[in-house]
Fold this sequence. Notes:
The protein is an alpha/beta fold. The chain is built from four helices and seven strands, in the order βαβαββαβββα. The protein has helices at residues 25-34, 50-57, 86-98, 136-157; strands at residues 18-21, 41-44, 62-64, 78-81, 103-105, 118-121, 126-129. It is globular.
Amino acid sequence: MAEYPYFPMFVDLSGKQVLIVGAGKIGARRIEALTAFTPAILVVAPAAEPQIARLEEEKKLSWRRRPFREEDLETIDLAVIATNDAELNAQIGQLCRERGIPVNVASDRTLCDFYFPGIVQTEEAVIGVTCSGKDHALAKNLTGKIRRMLEDAGSEDHPGKE
């Protein structure tokens, strides 16, 4: 069967419960990005990057400071799995699929129902960039170029704007 790229689709997360398992560097980046799109983020991780505690204090997420439990999936609409244990990530990903929960498994793109894009957000637009999970460096580079292009266009539209 031919391999097709993923279809870029924007989803309203405002009424959805999002689970992130793991809050190391990758998980923390994804958590921070998601806070702009939903207030209903549940983080499950025994430890986390420092910004996760700050986001919890700001009421942008709930953090359960413990390992994942299967019952964490009970009210979840979307999941991002980003622990430092690839086998655990795959197991949780399988549990999500069994329950019909779209899942992104950070350690293995072949286990992902969706890819986590590079995100550029302005007041007027949200732009997602992906290289189908194959080239994270290129996606990051393109995201940065788009961000700079929009910043430059904004300063041209508003002379004297710093």
